Amino acid sequence: MQKDTAVFSLIQKELERQRRGIELIASENFASLQTIQAMGNVMTNKYAEGYPGRRYYGGCEVVDESEQLAIDRLKQIFNIEYANVQPHSGAQANAAVMLAVLQPGDPILGLDLSMGGHLTHGSSVNFSGKLYQPHFYGVKKETGTVDYDMLEAKAKEVKPKLIVCGASAYSRDWDYVRIRKVADEVGALIMADIAHPAGLIAKKLLNDPFEHCHIVTSTTHKTLRGPRGGIIMVRKDGENPLGLKDNKGNVRMMSNVLDMALFPGTQGGPLEHIIAAKAIAFGEILTEEFTVYAKQIISNAQAMAKALRDKNYNSISDGTDNHLLLIDLRNKNISGKKAEQVLGKADITVNKNMVPFDDKSAFVTSGIRVGVPAVTTRGMKEEHMQFIVDCMDDCLTHADDEAYLSNVKKKVNEFMQQFPLYPELG
Ligand SMILES: *Cc1c(COP(=O)(O)O)cnc(C)c1O
Q1: Mean pLDDT for the chain?
Q2: pTM above the 0.85 mark?
C-alpha cells in the first residue's frame, strides 16, 4: 500500500516543531525513542478484555506477559501491592476510581480548578462534577499553599465519601498525614492524583502519598516520561476500608473493586501496544539514570524560580518544591493569554493558567504555568534556566514588537541545536 505522505509529513513537521522550541508546558515531556517506537507495534491488533491470566479472548498469552511485566515494574517503582496499567488516560483512571468507591450523587471534595485542581476533581463541566456532588477547598491567599484548615472544615461540613488531593498547577508538596487525619474523622477515602509529580515521588524526592492515601492515580506521560496513559495504584491490598460490595453483594478486595471499575466499568479492550510502551518506560524509571533526571528536574525548577524572582516575576507560593511554577503576571501588565501568544511567537511554549483568586476568566487568565520536565529531558542544566528566563522576559517586555520577537525566536532555535531530540530519526 502507498505510504500516506499527507499524515507522515505532518508527523515530521511536529518533530521539527518539538526540536526547535523550548517546551515549558509542565505536563509535557519527551518519551524515549524506544518508548515511542514500542507504541507503534502489532499488539494494537489484539483484543485482550480482562486481565493477565483472566481474559475474554484467546491468544492473549503474549500480551499477558507484557502487561504483567508492566504491572510488576510499576509495583517495584512505588513498592506497592496493586497496580492497574490499563487506563487509557489520567482522566480514565480517575473515572474508574470514582465509579469504584462512589454512588451517583455522593459528595466529593477536591482542590478548586481555579486554584490548581484538575477537571476530574469535581468540575461542573466534567463527569466528576455531574455524576457526584462536588465540593472544593482552596489555597490561602497570603501564602498560595493549600488551606488545610479549609479542607478540614469543608470535610466536616459536607462529609465527603472521597477526598481528592493532587493538582495540575500547584508547585508545593502535599501534607498527606493531615489529609488522612481529616479523612479518618469523617469516614472518607482519599484518592491522591499524582499525575504531575509522579516521577519525583517515584524517586522519593517528595512526600510519599501511598502510606496515607487509600488509592493513588497518575498519568504515565508527564514526569513519568512514558507513553500517554493512566495508572491506578494501591499500597496495601485488602478488603476495602468502606466495605464496598460488588453487584452480587460480596465485600471485595480493593484490587478487585478497582479492576472491575476500570474494566468492564469504564473501558473495553486495553491498549496492549501502549501497555508494552508503559513497561519500557517503567523499566527506565527503575534505572539510576532516571534518579539523576528527577533530581535535575528539581534543581532546574529551583534555578528557574530564582531567575524569575531576580526579574521581579511573582510566582504563587514564591517558589516550588516540584517541577513547575505558576507565574502571576499581574504586576507585569500582560494577561496569561497574551503571554502565551507572545512566547509562542518565539517558539517558547507555555500555557496560560488561572492564578488563585484570579479576576480574569479562564480564557484570558492572569498567569502562565511553566515546567521543566521536558527541557530537562533535552539535557538542560541549571545554567540554561537563566537563558530561558531572559528570553521569556525579552518577549514579554516587547510583546507588540514583531521584529524583536522574531529575533528572539532565532536565538531560541539556535540555542536548541545544542540539545538534539531523537537524532536517530534524522
Ligand atoms: C493531567 C492530569 C490528569 C489527566 O490526564 P489525561 O491523561 O489528560 O486525562 C488528571 N489529573 C491531574 C491532576 C492532571 O494533572
Answers
A1: 96
A2: yes
